[in-house]
Write a structure and sequence with these properties.
four-stranded antiparallel β-sheet; 4% helix; 341 residues; disordered C terminus; mainly beta; Tachylectin-2, Chain A
């Protein structure tokens, strides 16, 4: 590890308070960052570029299914459910979509995120929709009466009239929903409020970050907002960065590296920040994709609790860990004592 990263990692570690945790031998029910993750039927979880929706005491994980054996003319969004964030039951394809806008061969559907509308009692899926050359740059919207689907395509549009590529999802503690989207010509990315039915974006934008980032994610924790993104290096990992603010409209701090101990965020790219509000503490989980561009179906997931305090955020070295979703307390296990498979 380069000396400059060692020093910065040490400074960041001292500056932060570690979430409640212990270090003992790891049990079987652990989350293992970067390992093959199997569902309860023993199949590899295919949920890339995904997001989580908590509904009716259950977490639902949506992501793109990259299995090369699927119909090449369609794009598929998987749905898995869990009560503990460790054991996931496959709920089938929430969306199986043929080219909805005549985008041509190798059309793109990425980063699906699902919202619930208390107004209509329906579930709304947003996705990055594009052609093979990333010129279409729209969001696609699909809707369902059931959280597990099937979702039916409604429309595609450019939020705020702007190009939109990578998207992210945020629902605040008051239930207000937001879309995060990267707009390449604008030189940055936006946070925009969704309508009560979740089918459209309201103007004006709540926040704009004039920095070229993608993989946008956002969380509200302990009175502060934290936004995260990765640099524009395609499938190649890079130093993910974050900023903090007391309100969504700012003022925002400068962007800092979230994993100063790793020059490329341990090989992962941000896709979602998941807050688990327990009876004893709240934990924020970094959800990232470890992309394998030549075998996307074998891309792995890096989930790891973040260490957060007073506007500072740290993603420490990935190690096996568990979470008690009732209390919110996490337990980290040394890799040396129980190597990842």
């Amino acid at each position: 590890m380069p000396i400059r990263y060692c020093v910065r990692f040490l400074i960041a570690t001292i500056a932060l308070a570690v979430l409640p945790q212990t270090c003992i031998a790891a049990p079987h029910a652990t989350i293992r960052p970067g390992a093959v993750w199997l569902d309860t039927q023993g199949h590899v979880i295919e949920a890339h570029g995904g997001g989580i929706l908590y509904h009716d005491h259950t977490w639902y994980w949506f992501g793109t299914d990259r299995n090369p054996q699927l119909d090449a003319a369609k794009r598929f969004v998987s749905c898995d459910s869990s009560r503990d964030l460790v054991h996931w039951k496959n709920r089938g394809h929430a969306l199986a979509l043929a080219d909805p806008e005549h985008l041509g061969p190798r059309w793109v559907l990425e980063r699906p995120k699902v919202y619930y509308s208390p107004l209509t009692h329906k579930f709304v899926m947003y996705m990055h929709l594009d052609d093979a050359h990333y010129k279409y740059a729209h969001v696609g919207v699909a809707e369902s009466n059931k959280i597990t689907g099937p979702y039916h395509f409604v429309a595609s549009f450019r939020p705020l009239g702007l190009e939109s590529r990578d998207i992210g999802q945020f629902v605040d503690d008051d239930g207000q929903a937001y879309l995060i989207f990267e707009s390449r010509p604008s030189g940055g990315f936006y946070v925009a409020r969704l309508s009560p039915d979740r089918l459209s974006v309201q103007t004006p934008a709540v926040a704009f970050f004039h920095i070229p980032l993608e993989g946008g994610a956002l969380v509200h924790y302990d009175g502060m907002y934290y936004v995260m993104g990765s640099h524009l290096t395609g499938w190649r990992a890079n130093p993910n960065v974050y900023a903090a603010a007391p309100t969504l409209s700012g003022p925002w701090t400068e962007f800092r590296e979230v994993a100063p101990g790793s020059p490329n965020t341990y090989g992962a790219q941000s896709t979602f920040l998941l807050k688990v509000a327990g009876t004893k503490t709240s934990t924020v989980i970094f959800m990232g994709d470890i992309w394998k561009p030549h075998a996307l179906w074998d891309s792995r997931y890096l989930w790891r609790p973040l260490e957060i305090k007073d506007g500072r955020m740290l993603l420490a070295e990935p190690e096996p860990w568990t979470i008690n979703t009732k209390t919110g307390i996490t337990t980290i296990y040394p890799k040396q004592a129980h190597p990842m498979q």
